[in-house]
């Protein structure tokens, strides 16, 4: 099944490169600083909008207190009683003619 299995331990290289340069791990990345700047600007905009909306909400509350709704009386619905009763026999005769 496993054709690529190695049968013995692999030998480590005897010769190593002496002046191999390593990567700098602590270097600041420009993407992170740009994202921080974008988040800062976004947070400022959100705070500004929150202030504006709280002012609008307070204005709406004050206006709604001044103009209280006038209570309405429901208008009564008048139904007229039918003057003539339904003529069932006459309707049956008309259907029979069809």
Automatic annotation (TrEMBL):
In this chain, the stretch annotated as Disordered covers 1-32, 63-98
Start-end of Basic residues biased regions = 1-10
One Gene Ontology term from the biological process aspect of the record: ribosome biogenesis
Which GO terms of the cellular component aspect does the record hold? nucleolus
Q: Which domain of life is it from?
A: Eukaryota
Question: Which PANTHER family does this entry report, sorted A to Z?
Answer: RIBOSOMAL BIOGENESIS FACTOR (PTHR35544)
Name this protein carries in UniProt: Ribosomal biogenesis factor
Q: Which organism is it from?
A: Salvelinus namaycush (Lake trout)
Point out the gene that encodes the protein: rbis
């Amino acid at each position: 099944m496993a054709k690529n299995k190695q049968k013995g331990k692999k030998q480590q290289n005897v010769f190593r490169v002496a002046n191999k340069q390593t990567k700098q791990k602590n270097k600041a990345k420009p993407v992170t600083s740009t994202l921080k700047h974008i988040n800062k600007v976004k947070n400022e905009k959100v705070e500004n909008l929150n202030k504006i909306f709280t002012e609008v909400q307070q204005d709406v509350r004050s206006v709604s207190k001044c103009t209280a709704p006038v209570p309405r009386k429901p208008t009564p619905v008048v139904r007229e009683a039918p003057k003539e009763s339904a003529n069932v026999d006459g309707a049956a005769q008309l259907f029979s003619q069809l």
